Amino acid sequence: MAMKIAPSILSADFLNLQRDVENLEANGADLLHVDIMDGHFVPNLSFGPQTVAALRPLTKLPLDVHLMVDGPEQFIETFAKAGADTILVHLESTPHIYHVLQLIQKYNVKAGIVINPGTPVDALKAVLPIVQQVLVMTVNPGFGGQEFLETTLSKITHLDQLRQVEADYDFEIEVDGGINDQTIKSTADAGADIFVAGSYVFSANTPGQQIQTLRNLIE
Length: 219
Ligand code: DX5
Ligand code: ZN
Known about the structure:
By secondary structure, the chain is of the alpha/beta class. It has a single domain, classed as TIM Barrel (Alpha-Beta Barrel). The chain is 30% helix and 19% strand. Helix 2 (49-55) packs parallel to helix 3 and helix 5 runs parallel beside helix 6 (184-190).
């Protein structure tokens, strides 16, 4: 599977978002990762659907919308209509996870499931046949710039093994949190295909170089 680098705009310059997004697209990003936080499910606030709708006409890159919100079911239609290409919901955020994933697909949007560091892969079994992406959080969600949690690697390996033996599983494995030039290779070796990186990509004033460095480490 092709490796995809997904810069997270959480670390972009919000007053120059158009400039930063155009720069990422011109410099080899494969997806744009958009973190939506509600101050309840995670202890932080970020963007809403207006930001997704404003980004949509600015770029051809797929918008990978990561919902860190309680009760995601009430926001699926809004984010689908705003232009999300994938909507990722946390298993921990709703008692109706199967329904939410079906709802996402009803809008012809790819459905992704996300697990926090404390949630085991076994808890995903019922939904793995119906998702297109599985996002393994490699930090506790809520903030950019945190340290990668090594203990999450075995979950990536487990998911990669499962999709090799189960004929009805067809999902990409995504990692998010603490991905940089020191950590990306271990996640690729474990089986990840999509790599979200926020603070690392924006850490120097050269996102293109940072993206290329990450790509060189995994291809
Ligand atoms: C954290 C978000 C991440 C964040 C990653 O809750 O889901 O997408 O932007 O930031 P870094 O790459 O700095 O860990
Ligand atoms: Zn994210």
